[in-house]
């Protein structure tokens, strides 16, 4: 078993094909395929199911991937430790963020760490909070900006960046437009406009409706906050988002929802044992300020 074979396996998993993996590691496709097959023969199991159009891990491969990732990370820590002694960061830093993040400090921190450590390979992934949290648990990313409604993800390090109440967003012509506050039970039966499952605002909405008779799925489920705004301003329903989400929207009314315990929280989450690069980025983000 050789280190480059493990790197090739990881490249195939992350790119989804031997061709793309070969481009990433700058080796011919036949070279990648041959080395992976050698590793499979040595281990006595098939790592990949090659019968479908997109290469997928077998069950045995799925079970081995955490060990393969851990082995590569452990090897990378040798160089990272030496670089750390020289005041540099090497290796990779895989970062995730919810779709449409507009927090300037996050992008400033990425720019600063990239400038200070040119040998560090930065990767950024956008996804829903649920997908990003799962990716951290699987070791696919090191740190992410995600949202949650009540409690932070279990088993991960976390720090809150924003902690916002929920509001109902309506058009100026809506009967609620002059209201000062909305009770959660009043949302039942309304044509609600919501972000998809896996987002912090949706988790908060689900918490608001939990256990209430007659509560069903939102009438409108959209992928971006801007779509919530566009539907609400035209009187097509009641948007339910955090106060921060709609802070810069024009032509709408944002009415507080009377549920102080249910809030939308955006924060940083990381694995229980963060890498040196992840710790360096956390220091730049200083989310607890």
Automatic annotation (TrEMBL):
Top-rank taxon: Bacteria
Any Gene Ontology CC annotation: protein-DNA complex
Coiled coil: none
Pfam family, one: HTH_1
Residue intervals of the HTH lysR-type domain: 1-58
GO MF annotation, one: DNA binding
Annotated signal sequence range: none
Alphabetical list of PROSITE patterns matching this protein: HTH_LYSR
Gene3D superfamilies, A to Z: Periplasmic binding protein-like II, Winged helix-like DNA-binding domain superfamily/Winged helix DNA-binding domain
Keyword list, A-Z: DNA-binding, Transcription, Transcription regulation
Alphabetical list of InterPro entries matching this protein: LysR_HTH_N, LysR_subst-bd, WH-like_DNA-bd_sf, WH_DNA-bd_sf
Family affiliation: Belongs to the LysR transcriptional regulatory family.
Designated name of the protein: HTH-type transcriptional activator CmpR
Organism: Microbacterium azadirachtae
Lineage: Bacteria, Bacillati, Actinomycetota, Actinomycetes, Micrococcales
């Amino acid at each position: 078993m050789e280190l480059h074979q493990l790197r090739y396996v990881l490249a195939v998993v992350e790119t989804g094909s031997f061709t793309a993996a070969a481009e990433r590691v700058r080796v011919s496709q036949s070279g990648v395929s041959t080395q992976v097959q050698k590793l499979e023969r040595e281990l006595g199991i098939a790592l990949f199911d090659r019968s479908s159009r997109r290469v997928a891990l077998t069950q045995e491969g799925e079970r081995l991937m955490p060990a393969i990732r851990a082995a590569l990370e452990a090897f990378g820590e040798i160089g990272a430790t030496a670089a750390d002694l020289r005041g540099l960061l090497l290796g990779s830093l895989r970062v995730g963020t919810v779709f449409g993040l507009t927090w300037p400090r996050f992008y400033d921190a990425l720019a600063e760490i990239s400038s200070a450590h040119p040998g560090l390979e930065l990767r950024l992934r956008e996804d829903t909070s649920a997908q990003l949290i799962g990716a951290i648990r699987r070791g696919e990313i090191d740190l992410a900006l995600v949202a949650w409604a009540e409690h932070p993800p279990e088993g991960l390090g976390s720090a809150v960046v924003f902690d916002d109440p929920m509001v109902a967003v309506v058009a100026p012509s809506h009967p609620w437009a002059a209201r000062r506050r909305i009770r959660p039970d009043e949302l039942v039966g309304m044509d609600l406009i919501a972000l998809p499952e896996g987002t912090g605002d949706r988790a908060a909405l689900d918490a608001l409706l939990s256990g209430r008779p007659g509560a069903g799925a939102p009438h409108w489920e959209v992928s971006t906050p801007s779509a919530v705004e566009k539907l609400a301003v035209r009187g097509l329903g009641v948007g339910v988002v955090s106060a921060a989400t709609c802070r810069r929207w024009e032509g709408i009314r944002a009415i507080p929802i009377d549920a102080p315990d249910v809030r939308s929280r955006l924060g940083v989450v990381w694995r229980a044992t963060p890498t040196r690069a992840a710790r360096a980025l956390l220091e730049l983000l200083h989310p607890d300020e």
